[in-house]
Structures are given as structure tokens and as C-alpha cells.
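In the laboratory, one determines a bound structure by crystallizing the protein with its ligand and collecting diffraction data. In a computational setting the workflow is compressed into a single prediction: the sequence and the ligand go in, and a structural description comes out. We illustrate the idea with adenosine-5'-diphosphate.
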Amino acid sequence: MKKTAVFPGSFDPITTGHEAIINRSTQLFDKVIIAIGENSTKKHMFDIEQRKRWIKQTFPENPNIEIQAYSGLTVDFCLKNKANFIVRGLRSSLDFEYEQAIALTNKELAPSIETVMLFTESKYSMVSSSIVRDIITNKGNAEQFLPKSIQID
Ligand code: ADP
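The predicted complex, in C-alpha cell form:
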């Protein structure tokens, strides 16, 4: 059976940290669906179409990567797309606390779906969309934290 994983997130915007986790996930799964959550209570800086465009530019020609926007429960999105795995990235113990709560809840909601956590590489451990947004808001250059193919003016 083909192994399909969903990598859910806000990707507001996609960073080098996300890019690395996605690349590593493609080594583990036959198909990776990058799922941009639309229903978060978080306020976004970039609209969904823009976030999607940047993800597409980051992975222009990989037939094993799909990009979709979704709303509703992540587990429902997984079931609809016949994905048995959720991938998440871990940077710190703070991430761990947050991710554990989500993973345990998802396991209760949909026992057939396994959450797989990938530890970030140390060089990405300080990279986050929120820091990138802060840099952009304050007119700094966030280039080093963004995938090579995307440019934010
Ligand atoms: P969310 O709002 O769901 O946390 P994010 O886009 O911020 O969405 O993150 C999506 C996933 O990517 C989360 O599992 C997060 O921990 C992971 N992630 C974010 N930045 C990094 C990074 N630098 N290294 C590894 N994983 C990361």
C-alpha cells in the first residue's frame, strides 16, 4: 500500500525549516500532501493563495508532493485523502508540549492515523514563520530563512 503523509501547517510563510522537513518526508513516504490550514484562529500575514504560490515555487517539479488548502479537522482531511500519517517538525521542548497535545488528540479522533515527528536539523532550530514575519514587518531582510526560489519584497 502506498504511504501518504499530510504535513499540515500555516506556512505563513514557508521557511527553510519547513522545506527541510518536507524534503526529508519525501524520503519516508510515497506522497506528501502539504496542507495549508485555513481555519486557524491565528491571524495571517499572507493570504492563502500567496502562501500556496510560494510553496509551489519551492517544490516546482516533484510529482510526490501535492499542495492543498483545507479547513476543518486535520484528521478528516487525512481520511478524505487516504493519508495514514501526519508529519510534524520539532524544534524544542516548547514544540514538543504543543505537538504532543495535538498528536494525542488526533490519535483519539482517528486511531488509524499515526503522527510522525521529525527533529529539525540544528541549523533550522531557530527558524520560524513568526520570526520571518517580524523581520518583514520591520523592513529587514529575511532571505536566509526563506527557500531559495521565493522572494518577499
Ligand atoms: P502551525 O501553525 O500548525 O504550527 P507552522 O507553519 O508554524 O504551522 O508549522 C507547521 C509545522 O512545521 C509544525 O509541526 C512546526 O513545528 C514545523 N516547523 C516550523 N518551523 C520549523 C523548523 N524550523 N524546523 C522544523 N520544523 C518546523
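The chain has one domain: 4-145. Keep in mind that any predicted model is a hypothesis to be tested, not a measurement.
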